[in-house]
Amino acid sequence: MEEKKFKRTTVTAALPYANGGVHIGHLAGVYVPADIYVRYLRLKKQEVVFIGGSDEHGVPITLRAKKEGITPQDVCDRYHQLIKDSFKEFGISFDVYSRTTSKTHNKLASDFFKKLYDDGKLIEKETEQYYDEEAHQFLADRYIMGECPHCHNQNAYGDQCEKCGSDLSPMELINPHSTISGSKPVVRKTKNWYLPLNDYQDWLKKWILDEHKEWRSNVYGQCKSWLDMDLQPRAMTRDLDWGIPVPVKGAEGKVLYVWFDAPIGYISNTKELCDGAPERFGSWEKWWKDPETRLVHFIGKDNIVFHCIIFPTMLKAHGGYILPDNVPANEFLNLEDDKISTSRNWAVWLHEYLHELPGKQDVLRYVLTANAPETKDNNFTWKDFQERNNSELVAIYGNFVNRALQLTKKYWEGVVPACGELQAVDRAALDEFKDVKAKLEAYLDAFKFREAQKEAMNLARIGNKYITECEPWKVWKTDPKRVETVLYISLQLVANLAIAFEPFLPFSSKKLRRLINMADFNWSELGSTDLLKPGHQLSEPELLFDKIEDDVIQKQLDKLSATKKANEAVAYKAEPVKKTVAFDDFEKLDIRVGHVKACCKVAKSKKLLQFTIDDGSGTDRTILSGIAAYYEPEQLVGKDVLFVANFAPRKMMGIESQGMILSAVNFDGSLNVTTTIGAVKPGSQVG
What we know:
Elements: E1 8-13, H1 24-43, E2 47-54, H2 59-68, H3 72-90, E3 96-99, H4 103-118, E4 123-132, E5 137-138, E6 144-147, E7 156-157, E8 174-178, E9 186-195, H5 201-210, H6 217-227, E10 234-235, E11 237-238, E12 255-256, H7 258-276, H8 278-281, H9 285-288, E13 293-298, H10 304-318, E14 333-335, E15 338-339, H11 350-356, H12 361-370, E16 378-380, H13 382-412, H14 424-433, H15 436-445, H16 449-470, H17 472-475, H18 480-500, H19 506-515, H20 550-571, H21 583-587, E17 591-601, E18 609-614, E19 621-625, H22 633-636, E20 640-644, E21 650-652, E22 655-657, E23 660-661, E24 663-665, E25 671-673, E26 685-686
Parallel strand pairs: 1-2, 1-13, 2-3, 14-16
Antiparallel strand pairs: 4-5, 4-9, 6-7, 6-8, 9-10, 11-12, 14-15, 17-18, 17-20, 17-26, 18-19, 20-23, 21-22, 24-25
């Protein structure tokens, strides 16, 4: 297929819901790769706009508002600002970051729907939906919970089970209930407007399956699986009170479906940008209606259907708009071998990371790109984060830069020396990196950011190898002229690194340019061997990256461990009561109160503690209990505990145990010895 030529590029990044912060899954799946691509296009002096914004309608916003007892707008205002500030501090270089509650968006989305309605592109359908009689409203999918029919999770939503990942419809749930009132919903008829996707199926098949075979296999495959089935009309309106009102007579109490509303936010945010700076960006229509503009959506895999099938159908039905040329969707990033979940707070939140690890933006950008889930789900661990920082950014990239700058300072007071006669080792090093620009561009143009970053890091590997082979600190004593050549070539590699890493690590690239006094550069110069001229003065050397110590990582692991325990506490349900027994059977047990006179660990046993118990008989009783992992012996001395007195004696580790200490096992596996609230005489019976 002949490659299409474009004059400019519109890049969008999925609009995050303004009901919480942004986490590393969002960053790895959408925002870091989008930012890398946009920075790359800007470096090539290409015309590009980078569009972002907050998605502020839909049920997740209202759920958060109800939970906190505030209005949906309060929720939006808080999290929109938090997300916007976090993106800015992290270096996500949007040209505009707006919101779907803006007046510009409200009008554009409303007008878009009205045109489809007026042109007869929508169909009106009456369907049965769940209705909450106590709350007096129809229930959107996320307002309904029940038992998943597949894995029997009791807390599945009406659109998805977060435990097994199954897509659901509310009618599939077992024993559904309203999350608003808790009552069992009833089925009622309601009217909504639908986009007849089935009318566009043949067009979608040709446009995607025939004309976009270059799309990533995960994107193409998911689209094909949908298109191989019969597409059905999709509701574009909802029975809700939060959102953009449906601009049609008789649609009172209904709003635009959030997945109709949100992607139009890309357009309205572009309009807002262009209206505010027309001299720089021109008309918004050239970014959305000119066939010479390329449209690229960066999204996660859960949004593929909306961006590849539903939104393009909306644009096609409306007419006049360009369609996405590529949708490089990523798979999911897990956290410490567990699925990231906002509801369980199992995430690394960007705003918290920026506060707890200040100045480490590029470290996270580097690790997320190195672990990018481009074709399959991947995993983030704090140990890998530490290892990549210490073994790659510090030991390879930072080490090479520091060696080159420190040696130049030592031998030439930080002035770039002249290049003398080249030897075989010099030519070999130069030959290794001469194609870096072509290799980087091939990967970046194909949205293979993980491989592109590897190629950039390879420059530092070449540099380290070159300096080690040449040993300038030894040669200086006998041949200073030779060292001039070695350091000249090394410094050219350093300058190339500043350019090559610019799309990936903008903060450290800026710092490196300051260290080598390279204020201006051009992407076209990447691969050049004369970026720093002889006589050019360098700045005082500084370390480019710092080692991350174990205690920093342990704090993050402890934080996740506390989250896991909190989740287990919330999710805890007592085991079902055992089979009924006769009261006579219970009476056979002689449970008594004993006073712990002494307690010690049993030699050669990791599990056992040995108790000396005053049981009220006048003769001390010895009991062994396997609770050494939960208590130090001194914690139990002086306590009144419950024990079974009439079990037959049993020998363990050569010691006779005369009973059993009673303990309660907690939800997290911890254990608590049962004691009395007040003082009770030893030997008192329980019953």
